[in-house]
Amino acid sequence: MLFIGDDWAEAHHDVELMDAAGRRLSKARLPEGVAGIARLHAMIGDQLGDEADKAEVAIGIETDRGPWVAALVAAGYTVFAVNPLQAARFRERSSVSGAKSDAADAHILADMVRTDSHQLRPVAGDSPEAEAIKVVARAHKTLIWERTRHTQRLRHALREYFPAALEAFEDLDAADALELLGKAPDPASAARLTRGQIAAALRKARRRDIEAKTARIQAALRGEQLGRAAVITTAYAATTRSAVAVLITLNQEVKALHGQVDAHFGRHPDAEIILSQPGMGPSLGPRVLGEFGDDPERYVTAKARKNYAATSPITRASGKKKVVAARFVHNDRLVDALNSQAFSALQASPGARAYYDKQRDRGLDHGPALRQLANRLVGILHGCLKTRTRYDETTAWSHQAEMPAA
Fold this sequence. Notes:
59% of the residues lie in helices and 10% in strands. Helix 7 (175-183) packs antiparallel against helix 9.
C-alpha cells in the first residue's frame, strides 16, 4: 500500500508519499496540469518499482472534481475526497500548536487515508453522462437563481421611483413586462404607452385575456403616484434599462440551457425511473440524478442514500439528554431539489399526502413534515433504482394503514 496526501491549490499541488508504517517516502510541489500529473506518476513508480502492478495507491485530496482528480481516478488510484472540516479536525487531533502549511496539510491527508480510509468516502465512479447532466443542471439552476436575484433588485429599484410598475406587472421577469419596461422605464414615458403597444407586448408573450389585461396595465401606469425629482428618475431609469437587458439575456440562456438539460437527461438510462417518481419533473429529475450520481456501488443501502441527501435526522445523545435534529452539513442543491419534489408530491401522490398529514398529526410543522416526506421519497427512489423498476403508488405506500382514494 502507498498513501498519498494531495493539498491542492489553483496553480500547484503539494504531495507527500507515505508507507503503511506512516514513514514519509518523498514529497514535492507539483504544477497543475499534464506536467504535474506526469511527475506524480513518476514519483509513485519510483517507490513501487516492479510491484507497481500489484500495489494499491490511496490518495486523499480535498475535492472530488476537476481534471486532476479525473486523471487520478483514470490511473486506477483509489481517491478519497476529504471534507476540509474533517481534515481540520484531524489536524487538531495530531497537533495542538496551531501550525499550518501546505506541506503539512499534504502530510495530514496522507496520514488520514492511511489510518482512517474506512471512514472516508471514495470519489464516486459516476459515468461521464451523469457528470454531464450535473454540469448543465447546476448551470441551469444557477442562472435561475441569478434571474431571481436580478428580479428582486429591479423590484427594489422600481419601489424607489416607479411604484406603479409594480402594480401594473405581476411578473417582472416575464417577457411582456421586460419589453414594456425597456420601452418606458420611467413614469412619464410609461403613461404615454398606447393600448396597441401594451396589447402587442402581451400577444408576443402569449398572454390570455389581452383586452382586460391591457386596460388594467394602462390604468395602473396612468394612475396617480408619488414621484421623485426628474434627475433622480432619469438615473433610476438608466439602471432599469440595464436590469431589463440582463434579465432578457438570462431568460434566453435559461431557455437554452434547459434544452441542453433535456437532451443530456433524456439519454440517460435512469431517466425513466427518476421521472416516474411522484413530484419529479423534467427540471427536478436531472438535478436529482446529477447530485446523486449514477455509481451503482456508491449507496449500499437506502439509509446511506438518505444520509448523503441529508433528509435523515441525526441524534445527539449524552446521559439523559437526547436531541433529534436535522442535518446541518448537506448538499444545498440536492436538498433544494428533494424538498421541491416532496412539495409537488403532495398533489401528485395520495400516499405522499397521507404520509405528510400523518407527520403533521404528530405535531410537526410544515418544514419538518416535508423533510420527513422527502426522506421517505429518497428511500423509494433508492429501491426503484436498485431493482430497475418504475414507481408504483400501491407498492410505495403499502406500509400505510389507510390509503385515500386516488
